[in-house]
Design goal:
The chain is α+β, with helices and mostly antiparallel strands and 343 residues long. The protein has helices at residues 9-12, 22-25, 38-41, 43-73, 82-113, 129-147, 153-165, 168-175, 229-236; strands at residues 196-198, 215-220, 238-242, 262-266, 278-280, 285-287, 294-296, 302-305, 317-319, 325-327.
C-alpha cells in the first residue's frame, strides 16, 4: 500500500477542517463582471426592444377588446345555439388570456432588455426616520429613472392603456356571479297567498300531506315559470317540517306562523349560504353539511352549534280554504349569510 497522506481530504486542502483559517480558504469572489446587453450598446437594438415591449402592451389591449366583443357582441338571450355559446366562450377565453399574457410578458421583456441590470450590494445602516425618508424618496426616484418611463412615451402610454383595460374583464365576470348587495336579499317571491309547492315539481302541498317527522323541500308557486328562476330559487327555497305543536316555543307575535306544528324555514344557512338539507327527526335539529352549523327547530331555528350566528329566517304560513299551505307574507328579515345587513 502506498502513502496516501498527501492525497487525503484533510491534508490536500480541498476540505476545510476545524482549525483552518476559513477566510484564507474561502475568499469572497465578489460580483461577476457585468456583461452589457445588446440594447445597452446598440441604439437600434434599444429602439427595437422598446417597440417590442409596446407591441406586447398593445396585444394586451387587443385581448381586452376581444373579451368585450364576445361579452357584449354575442347575445345569448333566446334563439341562441350551442355554436354561439362556443364562439363566445372562445372569445372570452382568448381575450382574457392575451390581456393578461401581453401585459405580463411585456413587463418582463421591458425589465430584461431596457431596465438597468447592474447588481449592487449595500451595507445595513442604523434606522434614522428622517434620513430613511430621504433615502426612500431617492430610491423611488432612482427606480422611476431606471425604468426609463419618462423618456419612453411609447412604452408609458401603451402600458397605461393596458393597465386601465386589463381589470375590466374581471369586473364584468364578477358582476355576473350574482345580484348586487343592497336590499336584494330582503325580498323573495314569497308573499301573502303564495302557495307552497314541492321542489322541483311545483305541485301544491296540503297540510294533511305533511306528516309528523316529515320534511319537504319547498319553492313558491310560479318559480319554475320565472324568467330568473335560479336567482329567485337561491333566495326563496324553504324547508317544511311538522313537529308536535307542544314542542314548539314561538316567540310573541309568531304564535300563528305555524299550522298545527307545521313550520317553514329558509334553507339557506346564515353562515356562508350553503343549503341546509339534513333534518334529524328525533332531535328536531337542522344541520348544514358545509360547516356543521346546527339549528334547533323547537327554538325557532336558534343556532346551537357551529359558526353561524343567526337563526334561520322563518316563513309565516297558513292554510287556504282548500287545505293547501300558503305563505302569509315574505320573510321578515333578509335570507342568507350573516354578513348581509339585518334589521
Amino acid at each position: 500500500m502506498g502513502d496516501h497522506s498527501h492525497g487525503s481530504p484533510n491534508t490536500s486542502g480541498t476540505v476545510a477542517t476545524a482549525g483552518q483559517d476559513g477566510e484564507e480558504k474561502f475568499r469572497n469572489p465578489g460580483l461577476p463582471p457585468h456583461r452589457p446587453r445588446l440594447a445597452d450598446t446598440n441604439p437600434q437594438a434599444e429602439k427595437r426592444a422598446e417597440k417590442q415591449v409596446a407591441a406586447l402592451f398593445v396585444i394586451s389591449i387587443i385581448g381586452t377588446l376581444v373579451f368585450f366583443i364576445g361579452y357584449f357582441g354575442i347575445k345569448l338571450e333566446g334563439g341562441h345555439t350551442i355554436a354561439d355559446i362556443r364562439v363566445q366562450n372562445l372569445l372570452l377565453g382568448l381575450g382574457t388570456a392575451f390581456a393578461m399574457l401581453g401585459i405580463g410578458v411585456g413587463i418582463v421583456h421591458w425589465a430584461k432588455t431596457l431596465m438597468p441590470d447592474h447588481e449592487v450590494t449595500e451595507e445595513r445602516h442604523e434606522i434614522r426616520p428622517e434620513e430613511d425618508r430621504v433615502i426612500a424618496e431617492k430610491m423611488v426616484g432612482d427606480i422611476i429613472e431606471e425604468t426609463g418611463i419618462k423618456r419612453r412615451p411609447l412604452i408609458r402610454n401603451t402600458l397605461l392603456g393596458a393597465m386601465v383595460l386589463a381589470p375590466l374583464p374581471a369586473i364584468a365576470v364578477f358582476r355576473d356571479l350574482g345580484p348586487l348587495p343592497g336590499d336584494t336579499l330582503r325580498h323573495t317571491m314569497w308573499a301573502d297567498g303564495v302557495h307552497l309547492t314541492r321542489d322541483p315539481s311545483g305541485t301544491r302541498i296540503k297540510a294533511s300531506d305533511v306528516t309528523l317527522g316529515s320534511a319537504f323541500h319547498v319553492i313558491p308557486e310560479g318559480l319554475n315559470e320565472s324568467e330568473h328562476k335560479l336567482e329567485e330559487k337561491a333566495k326563496a327555497v324553504v324547508l317544511l317540517m311538522r313537529l308536535d305543536p307542544e314542542s314548539l316555543n314561538p316567540s310573541p307575535g309568531r304564535e300563528d306562523w305555524n299550522v298545527d306544528g307545521i313550520v317553514a324555514y329558509s334553507k339557506i344557512c346564515t353562515h356562508v349560504g350553503c343549503p341546509v338539507a339534513l333534518y334529524e327527526q328525533h332531535t328536531h335539529h337542522l344541520l348544514c353539511p358545509c360547516h356543521q352549523s346546527t339549528f334547533d327547530l323547537t327554538q325557532e331555528c336558534k343556532v346551537i352549534f357551529g359558526p353561524a350566528v343567526h337563526p334561520l329566517p322563518q316563513l309565516p304560513i297558513a292554510v287556504d280554504e282548500d287545505g293547501y299551505l300558503i305563505a302569509t307574507s315574505d320573510f321578515h328579515e333578509p335570507v342568507g349569510p350573516s354578513y348581509w345587513e339585518r334589521g
